[in-house]
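Notes on consecutive records. When two proteins share a document, each keeps its own sequence and its own token line. Never mix them. Below: protein one.
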Amino acid sequence: MTKSLFGSIDRIIGGGHGFKKAKMMVPVFYYFLFFFAFQKLEGLNPFVALGQRNFSPRWPIFWTEYTDYATAASLIIVFFVFASLTASFFWTQRIPRVLGFLGMLQYHAFTSSFGKPSHQLDLWLWVAFLLVFLPKNQRKFLLVFWAIQAFILLTYSMSGIGKIVMAFDQYFKGQATLFSPDAGVLHITTMLNRMQEPSLHGPLIVNYPLLGWIPLLLIVYLQFFSFVVAFRPSLHRVWAAALILFHVGTDLTGLSVFVAPSALFLVFLLGSPFQISKSVRRTILDLPGVSLIDRLRRSLT
């Protein structure tokens, strides 16, 4: 099985035909990172105005205990801007990529130091860390790029697995599960009551439960099989577009806003250097579950 797994990875990387495109996409990550950091520079005064209320520094910014809050906030955001800018210009060198990661780490730790962690940029932090190890060797470069794709998709599969495990637990407890037709409504009303915020399309789904249930099942399907898609390059762009739409949907219903992961899909999967062009029929047959049904059908005929 291990041999077959590594064989699949070798086939994806191939003869290095995607190297040129992968090399073009990596700096785009740092351009996004700089743009995000620069936006935070615009909001520096509101950050400082928050004061030290509820500020309990995480370990990466332990040094903030030796300075005042306003100075610490300013240093963290300014360092994030210049570190990401340096990485954008000199991304082929390891030290600027290390600086980019450290800038991201400091900012992430800072935003997570106000009572609860901030998960918006978790994936960005891990991707910045993985890019530190980006080698110059063409094959290894592509291997690291693919590993980043696989890591991003794995986090979504973990979320999908968690939802299914929870559904079985709820079923055995006699509770409603995500397989119940009113699951979408229950989920949306629970989240909206918890957040106490208005929703643009939440009331529409409450009135028409199937509008929430069917997308919910599709979301679980997308998440559960995401890691499998890492090994199917023909689905990289399709899956990236679908997961971006998933985040757009959660935003429209007011459940959560996850803008940051969508940018990673744009960089690493929508522009995947391993994408294989196939006909619509072949792409559909590559879909997880559909491919299994097709193999069973052919074995029986």
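Protein two starts on the next line and is unrelated to protein one.
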Amino acid sequence: MASPLSWDHFFTLSYFDYMFIIDSFLNLLVGFYDKDGEYEPKIIVVIIKNLNYGMMLELIYYLVPIILGIQNISSLIYFVFKIPHFNRLTTMTHAVNTYLDHYGSDMNVIQIKEAEKRFGIYQFII
């Protein structure tokens, strides 16, 4: 049987959750072009347009173990609960490619290479 999860271990493991929650929050703020070809100036419209299930899933992955009670969850069950969360790591490449396909048409080769380098560092951090 797996050992119970302590609060100290939970908070240590939660650092990844914090990064994912911050990443999902920042994704809400990514601007877009309106129907006139201009950047959308209203932040609430940008947030509503970018709102998706990802942010809610990040909060669920973090809050459900707390609601169920950390002392009642074994480390193995906690790991199994977090497996879908790790799927986010594999979707990062797709997100980068989508960004480069959309915004890369206005960039030259050097700018695209610099963007790929920044995204590579970002993926490594996450």
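For the record: Residues 75-103 form the longest helix (29 residues).
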